[in-house]
Specification:
about 0% strand, mainly alpha
């Protein structure tokens, strides 16, 4: 089913794929011929070309960020056009390609942020010491982008308007089967306590890394744990307080206007915080390179503090959603 938003998403994916294909061809030349000590004409062309390709990739990855937001918004908007769909869950369930498209877009979001941070760090060194590493990383990103373009095309073009789909009421129910049902069945008190513990750990790790100026991998590990725990908590408990309903676990309905778009205030800070924390883990090991030591010392605390800022924003929004909810389950959950 094609509408202006889906056409825009398809065009963006095709455009980004083409941009990465061009960049990949250049990446092979970098990996085989880059020699910063050489004054050959080929080396000079590679040095000039890397500025152009880097700019191309910055725009491509920015388009990817917008594509993720538009995909989720569009899934919500399309839900009214299919029987049984009340939110994005129903649209993603229309065919086998909906959820893979979402997961690939999320993966590309994290890869893109890490690549952009590494690109910034590499440009701080006079000898571009990370250029081979970051272009090798680009070769790993290309299959993800191509795969995302293909499954997204299949998802939109194989939507059957007459198909009756299942939505969040059946997927995110403690009585259903599968991973989503297992997550929905987690006791709210247990998930919120675990969320609080993970919050303390990730904030402590972030402050420690920011003050010490090394150990970014510690923050990355803590952020991965915090991200998983946060998603589980949103489904199993926080969403219940937002909906003020003890059995409504959908992670997408909180993006609707009727709930004040609070989902965006949860997800955007959480994803930004996690991506910055992951980037800290990729930045930290390069402090031993002489031309990057000062840049790493400056960049790592910035990444850590920014990550903590967004994590705290997420935790405050979650706490606000629970504290001011009219749903009270004293002596039931607590």
């Amino acid at each position: 089913m094609l509408n202006p938003a889906t056409l825009a998403l398809l065009l963006v994916s095709i455009l980004v794929s083409m941009m990465l294909l061009v960049a990949t061809a250049f990446a092979f030349r970098i990996l085989h011929h880059w020699d910063i000590q050489s004054g050959s004409e080929l080396q000079l062309r590679l040095e000039r070309g890397t500025y152009l390709v880097s700019t191309l990739l910055i725009w491509a990855f920015l388009f990817e960020f917008l594509s993720l937001l538009l995909f989720i918004y569009n899934a919500e908007a399309l839900s009214g056009q299919f029987v049984g769909a009340m939110c994005a869950t129903g649209v993603l369930n229309l065919n086998p390609w909906g959820w893979p498209t979402l997961f690939l877009k999320i993966t590309m979001f994290f890869v893109a942020v890490i690549w952009l941070v590494l690109n910034y760090l590499d440009n701080q060194g006079y000898d571009y010491p990370l250029i081979r590493f970051k272009y090798a990383l680009l070769l790993l990103a290309l299959p993800l982008v191509i795969g995302e373009t293909i499954v997204q095309w299949l998802h939109f073009t194989e939507m059957e308007p007459n198909l009756i789909t299942s939505c969040c009421g059946t997927l995110f129910s403690a009585d259903a089967q599968g991973v989503s049902a297992e997550v929905s069945g987690i006791a709210p008190a247990q998930s919120i306590v675990t969320l609080a513990i993970s919050a303390i750990l990730v904030i402590a790790a972030g402050v420690w890394v920011a003050l010490r100026g090394w150990g970014g991998w510690l923050l990355s590990i803590a952020a991965i744990v915090a991200f998983v725990v946060a998603i589980l908590a949103i489904i199993s408990s926080i969403s219940l307080y937002i909906y003020e309903h003890p059995h409504h676990h959908c992670p997408f309905c909180i993006l609707k206007q009727g709930h004040g778009y609070v989902g965006y205030f949860l997800y955007i800070p959480l994803f930004l915080a996690t991506s910055l924390a992951l980037s800290a883990g990729f930045v930290s090991p390069w402090r031993k390179i002489l031309s990057l030591s000062h840049a790493v010392a400056d960049l790592l605390p910035v990444l850590s503090w920014l990550s903590q800022f967004f994590f705290i924003q997420f935790y405050l929004t979650a706490a606000w959603s629970v504290w001011f909810s009219r749903l009270t389950m004293m002596e039931v959950w607590w």
